[in-house]
Amino acid sequence: MRLTRPMLAPAALAAVLALTGCGAHGDGGAAVPETATGSLEHLAAEAKCAPDMQTDADTIRQALCGKGDEKYVLATFATDRGQREWINTAKDYGGYYLVGRKWVAVGHEDVVADLRGRLGGTLEQGVQHGGGGHDAGHSGGHGEHAAHGG
Q1: CA–CA distance, 59 with 113 (Å, rounded to integer)
Q2: With contact defined as beta carbons under 8 Å apart, do 63 and 52 qualify?
Q3: What is the pTM of this model?
Q4: Which of 84, 88, 60 is nearest to 74 (CA)?
Q5: Apex CA 79: angle with CA 71 and CA 27, to 5°?
Q6: Which residues contact 38 (CB under 8 A, 6 or more apart)?
Q7: How far is CA 109 from the centre of its chain?
Q8: Measured distance CA(75)–CA(21) in Å, rounded
Q9: 3-state secondary structure string, the chain?
Q10: Is the dihedral of CA 59, 61, 62, 65 positive or negative?
Q11: pLDDT single digits (tens) 16-66
Q12: pLDDT for 82-107, tens place per residue?
């Protein structure tokens, strides 16, 4: 299946809304290993995740990992440019991102910080949404929204 950019945007938004929630404010505290590389399956194994594949396209492969508050999205990309474009768009929805070469994990702050201890990578944060309330389309959000899909 080949997805085009217009098809990826609604899918990303749907995943954002499905995994919206507040993050804890932990720092992960563990030593950071060298950034992992490889296929989605290899990264999932390193993260101790049994991936639930959501998208398997030429440009992006994406799976859900974990359960409940530990749920996160793990995605791999065909190109560095495609990855950066996806992250830049997804960050508008808030959230916490663990970024490696051609892969990203997105979830609650504490979950992503914990994953960093297994996968390495760089932590990035999406746009902060504040103001005491939440937008009509964001269920359960308290200012920081996590997760994205493609």
Answers
A1: 26
A2: yes
A3: 0.69
A4: 60
A5: 35
A6: 46
A7: 10
A8: 19
A9: CCCCHHHHHHHHHHHHHHCCCCCCCCCCCCCCCCCCCCCHHHHHHHCCCCCEEEEECCCEEEEEECCHHHCEEEEEECCHHHHHHHHHHHHHHCCEEEEECCEEEEECHHHHHHHHHHHCCEEEECCCCCCCCCCCCCCCCCCCCCCCCC
A10: negative
A11: 434 434 333 344 455 789 999 999 999 999 999 999 999 999 999 999 999
A12: 999 999 999 999 999 999 999 999 99
**CA-CA-CA-CA dihedral for 88, 79, 11, 23, to nearest 10:** -50
Q: Locate tokens 């799976």: which residue?
A: 63
| CA–CA distance, 142 with 7 (Å, rounded to integer) | 28
Q: Give the Cα separation of 77 and 82 in Å (integer).
A: 7
Token pair 């950034």 in the structure block, residue: 35
pLDDT of residue 19: 44
Structure-token pair, residue 97: 């991102």
Do the beta carbons of residue 144 and residue 112 sit within 8 Å? no
